[in-house]
Every structure is written in C-alpha cells, then in structure tokens.
Amino acid sequence: MVGNDRQQNADHVSASRELPVGSARSVLLTVLGDLVLRHGDTVWTASLLYVMTGLGLEEQTARQAIARAADAGLIISEKHGRTVRWTVSTTGRAEIDDIAARAATLINPPKVWDGRCLILAVTIPRPLRAVRKRLYSALYLQGFGNPAPGLWASPHVDRVEELRTLIDDLGLRESTITFIGGTLGVGITDSEIVARAWDLEAIAERYEQLIDRFAELKPAPGDDLLFTHIALVDEYRQFSAMDPQLPDNLLPNWVGRRATDMFVDLRSRWAEPACERWLEIVEMTAPRV
C-alpha cells in the first residue's frame, strides 16, 4: 500500500512541484511544525516522504534530512516491524517553536520608532576568531545591521537580553560595548545608516519574487494545495533571518509588509484544507497490520 501511495505521489504533477523550497532540513521542520504537531507529535516515515518528495526533493535527500534530524535529537525513532514512527522530541519542539516565534515577528505591525537604537561595538580576539560567523549570523537574526566595521545597530531596543545571552555564550563580554541612543545629526543620516547596515535591495527582490510566485496561484484541492501551502510557509519563514523588521517611519512603504499581507491571506485560506489533506495522507501511508 505504501509503495502504491508513493507511486501515486510521483505521478501527481502540479504547479507546486515547480515552486522552490528551502533545504531538506527546512522543509522537514516546516512539515513537522505546520502539520505533524497540529495533530499530535508522531509521524510515519512514509508520510514525511510523501510530502517532501511531493515538493520536489529527491527521496534520498529527504531520508538524509530525517536521519540528520534524528542525529540532532530533534526526532526520536520507534520501529514497528520494517517501518519507523517518529516522535518530535522536546528539543525538536523548542527549535520549531523558535522558528515559528521568529516568523511571527514579521506579522506583528511595525512599531513607531522613537529614534533610539541598540548599539553594539565588538571586536573578536584572535583566540576567539572561530566564533565570527556564529556571531554575525546571530546578530542578523536578531535584527542588527552592520553600518561600519565592528559596529552593529538595531532599532529593536527591547532585545537587550537576547544580545546579552549571545555575547556571554560566545565569550565576548570583555571585548564588547553596548548602549542605547540616537544619532545627533553629525555625520551620515539615519537613512544612510540603514542603507549601509542592511542589503535591503536584495531582501526586497526576494520579497517581490515571493509575491510573484504565490499571489495569483489557485492550487487545486488535495496534494496541489497541500504542497503549495507548505512551500509558501517554508519560504516565508526564511525571511525572519533576513528582514531586520525596521519600523515604518524608518523604512516606509516596505515591500515586506505587502508580502506579509499576502502570506496571512493565503495561509488563512489554505491552512485548513491543507491539514485535511495531510490527515488523509497519514491514513493512506500508515502501515497495514
């Protein structure tokens, strides 16, 4: 029965298979968070493969992503004869919740900016130079931009504790200075700081591509809608690691807000029927005893 289901999935041709998706790991976490955890915390391998291959991933690539998630402690296996059922672990839930929380910040209305920034001046000592990549990735994820060497700025002054945890965890407390303040009109302007701190043109282009791909889609019921829905959620969540979520009076008419409106609208229409199709797939791919 599972073999027949896989063939049915392979034979299904839909617009969703032409939609780009993130890494196999990203897709797996999206499926776990947006489908599996909505209906418990366990899932069969065949159910995961049905959706992941339906999105265009090679089966071997999907299996590797599942195995690596298990190695990382995100999911726990339980064998039932020749089949495997996976349970999302506490660690896996925490990572999925963190991804969802970051994505949710994109949907929240931008706050009016009071002109203050959280400023970070940090140098990385030679013995700690291996942490450079981790530091920069984490700072961008927290909404910081880099307008000048060694200087980082964020309008999100409420994220001090996140920053404190990061700096302490990386052992950079002794080479870091932080403060909250505003510019004084000497030197470059706020808009010039924004232009230097973030590659907003590249982010805007990604948003425009998202809108172009999904805005006019009308997926057919069943697999097409399910796969399109997961592709949308997976791609949109990636913006939480790119978009600094600048307030409206600092970055007016930002295309990200138009993309977010589209995402919220489409998800409100697609989520329920997508879940209904997922439950059918779970039943269809479950091992027969």
List low-confidence stretches.
1-15
What's the count of strands? 7
- Counting helices, strands and paired strands, the structural category is alpha+beta
CATH topology name of the largest domain, in short, is Arc Repressor Mutant, subunit A
Distance between the termini: 11 Å
CATH architecture label name of the largest domain: Orthogonal Bundle
* Fraction of residues in helix: 40-55%
- What composes the largest sheet? 4 strands, antiparallel
Q: Count structural domains.
A: 2
For the largest sheet, list the strands in their spatial order: 5-6-4-7
| Arithmetic mean pLDDT | 89
Rg calculated over all Cα atoms: 22 Å
- CATH level-4 homologous superfamily of the largest domain: Winged helix-like DNA-binding domain superfamily/Winged helix DNA-binding domain
Shape: globular
- Provide the succession of SSEs: HHEHHEEHEHEEHEHHHH
Strand content: 5-15%
Provide the CATH top-level class of the largest domain: Mainly Alpha
How many individual helices?
A: 11
Descriptive overview:
The protein has 289 residues and is α+β, with helices and mostly antiparallel strands. It has two domains: 1-110 and 202-289, Arc Repressor Mutant, subunit A (Orthogonal Bundle), CATH 1.10.10; 117-181, Alpha-Beta Plaits. Helices cover 52% and strands 12% of the residues. The protein is built from eleven helices and seven strands. The chain has helices at residues 2-11, 24-34, 45-54, 59-71, 90-107, 132-141, 160-169, 190-197, 200-214, 223-237, 255-285; strands at 42-44, 75-80, 83-88, 117-122, 145-148, 151-154, 176-181. The protein has a four-stranded antiparallel β-sheet with strand order 5-6-4-7. The protein has a three-stranded antiparallel β-sheet with strand order 1-3-2. A hairpin with a 2-residue loop joins strand 2 and strand 3 (83-88). Helix 2 packs across helix 5. The longest helix is centred in the C-terminal third of the chain and has 31 residues, at 255-285. It is globular.
